[in-house]
Amino acid sequence: MSHPSLASTVALAAVILVALLVQKPAAGQTRSRATEAPTAAKAWTPPRTPDGKPDLQGIWTNYTLTPLERPKGLGAKEFYTDQEIAELTKRAHAGDLGEEGDPGFTRPQAVRYDLELYGFDPNTLRYSSKRTSLIVGPEGVVPPMLPAAREKNAESAAKDKGHEFDSYANRPLSERCLMGQERIPMLPGANEGNLLQIVQGPGYVALLREQNHSTRTIPTDGRPHVPQNIRLWQGDSVGHWEGNTLVVDTTNFTNLTPFRGSSEKLHLVERFTRSADHTMIYEFTVEDPTTWAKSWSAAIPWTKTKGPVYEWACHEGNTMISTILRGARVAEADAAQKKGK
Questions:
Q1: Pick from 312, 308, 314: which is nearest to 61 by CA?
Q2: How far apart are CA 278 and CA 203, in angstroms?
Q3: 317, pLDDT greater than 80
Q4: Cystine design at 254: which of 43, 195, 231, 335 (Cβ 3.0–4.6 Å)?
């Protein structure tokens, strides 16, 4: 990853802010919120932007060890005790966490040699809350996939099998540096790509993820969604304010960017609530009637941090794709030569 100078970092922030301020809002309508929203955060009066909206701006981190789904042995237990959190944190620092947490990129990796060289220090691992899973509710796991959805996903996987290295188009979007950790809903990890910068202007909120390289600009001026025949990798997001909470409704997804097996029918509702000076509660509710029988929700605390958010270089020159495909062609030629003998 390449780190630019302070001047270029400041310039990037200035460009984002100017872009937000010069755009004009369009008239339209808002969407209703999802039916299964997580419990609201404690009442707190946030600062206001010049146009009177709650000020969510700043650089935030969603750094946490809490896994998306609850470990099987915990049953319906939604929260750990203080003593349990202390013990789990101690185990995480010792590299003996098991399924109770997600150590992310702090796991030993041969390609990185000395993890501490990159700032991945296991002693900084922590839980951002006492939740046993990011998914809220007694189940604490993603609902079972509907039989039709399982069959559809299996057919798609079978169709792609054996063609993974045919061309660049067969490689994952993240490997091609087209879409990475900025996918929505925004799931956390441990020790990499956790920063997110929020910038606000009249009628817009912009979110810049540390990974990959795109800025998500969300209109909050009451406009409707784009027509259903327009489909986008990240869907079409429109926002509105409910008290101190920014509610973002996203539809119009494609079937090229599924979330845990979802279809283009995916409907996502995100809620951003600044619950304290240095704390943001990010909640999301996912529903897709063709994939799951019911919707499900998650809650992730964010903590304010100084940053900065450096420029993210997915791959310097992105030679990985050409190397992978060249290796596949060499392997095919090798196999053909052996077959001809």
A1: 308
A2: 24
A3: no
A4: 231
Strands 236-242 and 267-276: unpaired
> What secondary structure letter does DSSP report for 104?
G
pLDDT, tens digit (0-9, with 9 covering 90-100), for 164-218: 999 999 998 888 888 876 789 998 865 667 889 999 999 999 999 887 767 899 9
**Per-residue tokens: 235:** 């869907």
CA angle 226, 228, 233 (to 5 degrees): 80
Q: What are phi and psi of 175, to 5 degrees?
A: -70, -30
Q: How far apart are CA 74 and CA 78, in angstroms?
A: 8
- The rounded distance, in Å, linking the Cα atoms of 293 and 288 is 8
Task: Report the C-alpha gap between 80 and 10 in whole angstroms.
Answer: 41
- pLDDT class of 91 with cuts at 50, 70, 90: confident
Exposed, middle or buried: residue 93 (CB in 10 Å: 0-12, 13-18, 19+)? middle
Q: Does residue 117 register a pLDDT over 80?
A: no
pTM: 0.80
Region for residue 38 given its phi and psi (left: phi exceeds 0; alpha: psi -120 to 50; beta: otherwise): beta
Q: Which CATH class is domain 38-66+134-340?
A: mainly beta
Q: Token digits for 91?
A: 């185990």
**Per-position DSSP letters for 114-146, written without gaps between them:** -GGGGT--GGG---SSSBS-SB-SSS-SPPPBP
296 - beta bridge partners?
A: 286
